[in-house]
Give the backbone structure.
Amino acid sequence: MVQIPKHIKTALKLLAGDYPQNVLKQLLLQVLQNLEDTGNECVQLANTTGHEFSQVMLLLGEVIEVTTTTQSLHEEQILLLSSYHLR
C-alpha cells in the first residue's frame, strides 16, 4: 500500500533527527505500530482477494462444465434434426 513507504520514510527521519531518547522511542513505537497495522491490513486484503479468486475459478469451472454439457446436447439435437431432414 501507499502508506508503507511513508511510514518507513517517517521512521528514517526520526532516526536521523536529533530527538531525546524517550521521545524518539515513543515516536518510533507509534510509527512501527502504524507500519504493522498497514502490513496486517495488506495481508487481510490479499487473503480475501485470494479467496474471492478461488471462488471465481470454481464458478468458471462450473460454467465450462455446463457449457460443455449443453454443447454436446445441442450437437446431438442438430444431428437428429439433420437426419430427419435428409429422409
Summary: The chain has a mean pLDDT of 93. Residues 3-86 form one domain. Helices lie at 3-16, 21-86.
